[in-house]
Amino acid sequence: MSDVPDILSETIPRKSYFLGLDFSTQQLKAVVVDEKFEVLHEAAVNFDRNLPEYRTSGGVKKNGSTVTAPTVMWVKALDLLMDQLKITGLDFQDISAISGSGQQHGSVYWRKGVQNLLPTLDPTKFLFLQLANCFSIQDSPVWMDSSTHSYCETMEKKLGGPQRLADLTGSRAYERFTGHQIAKIVSEKAELYFNTERISLVSSFACSVFLGCYSPIDWSDASGMNLFDITLKDWDSQCLHMCAPDLKEKLGEPVATHTCLGPISNYFVERYSFDPSCQVVVFTGDNPASLAGMCLEPGDVAISLGTSDTVFLWLSGKPTPSLEGHVFCNPVDPEAYMALLCFKNGSLTRERIRDVFAHRSWDEFDALLACTPPGNHGHIGMYYDEQEITPKIQGTFRFNAFDQKVNTFEEAATEVRALVEGQLLAKRVHAEQLGFNIGVWT
């Protein structure tokens, strides 16, 4: 398990508050907790509503398959957020440590010379005024971008195929992954790339602002770039060379996700009266942070049920990355891994079956499910209203107790249980393919 408490215990007082931030797609959120994890203060800045001057929709700008966000918008959101926290009555001197998360895969490009600027920011001025011209690329590519398909194909082909890339980096090539976004910038905006001093993920960008110098990228978030060897826990030279020249120098050395980087920058001490000894712990991606925040342990499975369903897994043994799903370095235990599986057909599919077979009532849906036994008398269904991500398939497939394909089931209750069990079995099958072991402790 992580030794963060031991690292921090030498530098924090007995009674302490902790500030956590999340730089997500649509908003910037903050929460302050005490040593018992009780929530004391909360604040949020919605990018569309609170920063309309950047003209984003859902926190992003879309131009066909290219999806970006103004980098300085995130900085200005932080200015607003800090003022909101002050209004809640928070005494920043009580904050002993800071950490946070950011939307995965997004990238930030610091122009040359900024390394010398970050430690000398003027505490009498807002951050966004001082950092507005600090980015060589003004609009950061984000996870919703799907404009890099050709770059993905190139990497997989040169490396020996998608499975080889997955074995190395934890995932086959995905358009949103950072390495391919960097390759696109080198191809289309080479001059801007060569004027870049450091490339950060959204998480390490945010951490850099608090640290007053460039923050390293952590192992867990680095696992979502198609550049990081998840076994050796270091950048893979082949992947780096395929994407861009001098990329290792621009990324910096990666660190373990529990690493305590040092005290907060003088800017926050002078402007907000933070204690100079307040420690900054490396930020990570939002998905690894979710696994840590839910306090998952070996053998645990967490499922987020939404428009898309997401499965979080703690992998204790050697992982077996596949062409579906992702394997990341574990944010809590440096010797373990985590897996992430995304299923596109989630709540909307469940709602369709509810509407057709349970008269639009969840209570009736639950009653129908309860009146059928586990196993559904051998009936099973797979429901893919939209083309699925894991695996890539579309359509509805029903099978009776004799493994014969049928168009419908006779009973509504059979249909409801077929949906629920089919979705859960799919999650189990793909989890086991990634190396997760189902046991009595699961």
TrEMBL record:
Its GO CC terms are:
cytosol
Question: Which SUPFAM superfamilies does the entry mention?
Answer: Actin-like ATPase domain (SSF53067)
What this protein catalyses is: D-xylulose + ATP = D-xylulose 5-phosphate + ADP + H(+)
Residue ranges annotated for the Carbohydrate kinase FGGY C-terminal domain, each copy included:
302-434
A Pfam family for this UniProt protein? FGGY_C
Q: What is its EC number?
A: 2.7.1.17
Q: Which CDD domains match?
A: ASKHA_NBD_FGGY_SpXK-like
Tell me the ranges covered by the Carbohydrate kinase FGGY N-terminal domain, including all copies.
Answer: 142-292
Q: Name one GO biological process term.
A: D-xylose metabolic process
> What keywords is this UniProt entry annotated with?
ATP-binding, Carbohydrate metabolism, Kinase, Nucleotide-binding, Transferase, Xylose metabolism
Picking any one GO molecular function of the record gives: D-xylulokinase activity
Q: Which family does it belong to?
A: Belongs to the FGGY kinase family.
**So what does this one do?**
Phosphorylates D-xylulose to produce D-xylulose 5-phosphate, a molecule that may play an important role in the regulation of glucose metabolism and lipogenesis.
Name it.
Xylulose kinase
What organism does the record attribute this protein to?
Daphnia magna
